[in-house]
Amino acid sequence: MSGPLRQNTISVRRENRTLENFKSFISEEVTRDKITVLILTNSKAKKPEIVTGMLLKACEELNLPCYRVVTTEAWISDNDIEKGTVAIKNHDGEEKDIEVETASTVVFVRAGVLQEEVGLALLGTLQNAGCMMINDRDGMLTCDNKMSAYTAFERNNINTPRTSLVNNEKSILDAHERIGGKFPVIIKTLTGTQGIGVSKVDSMESMMSVIQSLWKFNAPLIIQEFLKIEFDVRTIVLNGRIVASTKRIKPEKDFRSNRHMGAETEPYTLSKEEKSEILAAARATGAYMVGVDHAIVNGEIYILECNGSPGMGSKFQNYDMTTVPQEPTKDKDIVKLMVEYLQNPVHRRYAFNQEAGYHETVEIIDYGLVRAKFDTGNGTNASMFVVDKLDVDGKKVKWEKNGKKFISKLIGVSRPEHVVKIDERPIISVKLAFNNMIYDNVPLGLTTKDARSTLLINRETLVRFRVSVNPHRKFVLSNYKEREDSNDATAKVDPPETKLKGLDK
After folding, report:
1. What is the enclosing helix (H) or strand (E) of 281?
2. What structural domains and CATH numbers belong to the chain?
3. CA of 454: how far to CAs of 266, 445, 470, in Å?
4. What pLDDT, in 10s, does the model give residues 412-427?
């Protein structure tokens, strides 16, 4: 068969395939891949911790390969991007090696991984290789750092206890005033789980004493207004879906309601209002899976914190992940339920995207703030930055912008078509700051040719930013930055008095 008939047949097949894929997407039709599950942990204990054990058991029941990857023992010996595979040596400390296909590999990251640079490095390598991370580096670090989480909540108008960072003695009194100036207050280490590193103090003398004592261990601290809480609720959220919720009743002689501190747990049914606040909090963290803690005080819902590596050994109320709105359902193994959910390739895509404008302000670390265009149509392998001068000398790129001179390592070449001709752009790696997050190793293609935007952010970087672009709005997630050239995409700009003077804090 040849000619128009063959072409029409191919076209019909493509349309049918596209329609089938679309139907599968909107109906979330059950499609289950043979995924591989990795558990990234710093624990070398023979007996796995609770969640690790639950994952191993669930995968065994589902006939899926599942491996512990101990960060202090394992190393990556081969990362073949072309083949889409990663080879891990000595993955469990027992001289065993594995090779996995990144497209069908899901990595559960446990909290201890963040404690050491080697853990963060292994996390980043698996993430960059293309594995599905639960959670990725940014999501884990946002949840792990209580001040970062509080900032994310505040930026998204989520009700949370007033919180302030204390980083030296001069800041203590000011921080105390900013959270209300009353006692008691809660003192927390910036990182920490299971209620460890949390103190309640009833006076200025006690507050100063506790803070100074913790500083002796080089512990960064926050202080937080005290809320009288009888119980709080932990809700597990997976990719914008509520999986389960549990009520944690604090022990009689302790103000903390963590299960590890002896709190009793029981299934808890969420109200419509609670669901809405919980999902908003999960969305603010950018994490794929998160344990959201909240309490109700005087009729108000307060989001207390989020955990990127939540425990799941409590008594939970399950929710049907296939219904909208979500309704309570019968008890199920929530870990097994999540693994089954992740077998569907549709579900291995982030549902949480913040809205961004088509123009936003981005900081290129070491250079400064730039007015950028977010281009969803830019499928090149690097974002584009227009510079004043450019010279490639072997593996070094010398470039200049607004009188600032830089020397960067050449990591590749981008060759997009530019007005019919091919524009060869040397690619360098930079660190970008956007929306209160810092992104390492962002590829940037440099050019001296005229362009409609000084900085053009490509699709790959937008995926890392986790944003969906509103083509009708500018500066949704950042402040206005004056145009740097006369060729920027929009002729009309905001009034000069709204000019950005620094990053959002």
Report:
1. helix 272-285
2. 36-136 (3.40.50.20), 162-225 (3.30.1490.20), 231-348 (3.30.470.20), 354-498 (2.40.70.10)
3. 55, 12, 20
4. 998 876 555 677 899 9
